[in-house]
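Quick review question:
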């Protein structure tokens, strides 16, 4: 296995909620010291990149906004390429502000929309909000449904919470159309991240806590998928049809695995 670059998930890998994963900052520092190309990839759409950068820096991880790839960045570029200037944004206010900073102005509640963009609205979802998104899609079959990822759930301080994927699937079912996915596990999202590394997909490693979005999604895009036993990891993840290329106790074990990785590409379930 020839690996030269690393993609790191954030929530569940470098931190869980507001708590840093022990050894995470040191693992990133190790990558920096050895000039190993790396980027941070996340499906988080509840906060803009500047807040993500500030959170990582507070944990001792030096990072610039350009090092963080989010679905918002990918979606803004896609909407511009498709000529969608006034999407209905079902995202938190801070995320809507980032869309505006990237040149995408959201349509107001009573204005016509040329796309429906669904992100991590969290507790902001209610029947009226979900139904408004559905009606926009039902009344104009020509506008796209844009999903900022398809993550099923995530682990917060108080336990598991539904993520954007559950709401996107509901809108797909009700409207009878397929979403354009601009986040994990979409292959295009991973290809964009690999391009930022200036590496070939088969030379890049994705480290995540989600067996589907992080590991399976990365593998389908040609990357090596490494699963960590933190965040939303569940032991039953290893009993399914998805086989990670490696399983580590946490991202803190990445440097040792990197040094000792085997050449056969098999699963390494060591904790070292």
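Suggested answer, residue by residue:
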């Amino acid at each position: 296995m020839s690996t030269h670059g690393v993609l790191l998930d954030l929530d569940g890998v470098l931190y869980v909620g507001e708590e840093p994963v022990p050894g995470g900052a040191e693992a990133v520092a190790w990558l920096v010291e050895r000039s190993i190309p790396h980027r941070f990839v996340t499906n988080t759409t509840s906060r803009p990149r500047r807040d993500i950068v500030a959170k990582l820096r507070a944990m001792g991880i030096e990072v610039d906004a350009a090092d963080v790839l989010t679905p918002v960045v990918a979606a803004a570029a896609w909407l511009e390429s498709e000529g969608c200037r006034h999407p209905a944004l079902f995202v938190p206010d801070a995320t809507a502000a980032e869309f505006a900073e990237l040149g995408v102005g959201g349509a107001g509640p009573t204005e016509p929309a040329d796309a429906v963009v669904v992100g991590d609205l969290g507790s902001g979802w209610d029947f009226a909000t979900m139904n408004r998104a559905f009606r926009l899609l039902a009344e104009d079959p020509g506008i796209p449904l844009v999903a900022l990822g398809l993550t099923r759930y995530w682990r917060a301080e108080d336990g598991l919470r539904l993520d954007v994927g559950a709401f996107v699937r509901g809108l797909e079912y009700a409207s009878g159309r397929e979403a354009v996915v601009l986040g994990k596990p979409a292959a295009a999202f991973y290809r964009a991240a690999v391009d930022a590394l200036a590496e070939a997909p088969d030379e890049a490693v994705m480290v995540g806590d989600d067996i589907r979005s992080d590991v399976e999604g990365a593998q389908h895009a040609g990357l090596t998928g490494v699963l960590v036993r933190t965040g939303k990891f569940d032991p039953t993840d290893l009993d399914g049809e998805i086989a990670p290329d490696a399983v580590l106790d946490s991202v803190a074990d990445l440097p040792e695995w990197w040094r000792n990785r085997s050449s056969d590409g098999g699963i390494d379930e060591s904790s070292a």
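Why it works: The first strand starts at residue 5 and ends at 8. The chain has a mean pLDDT of 90.
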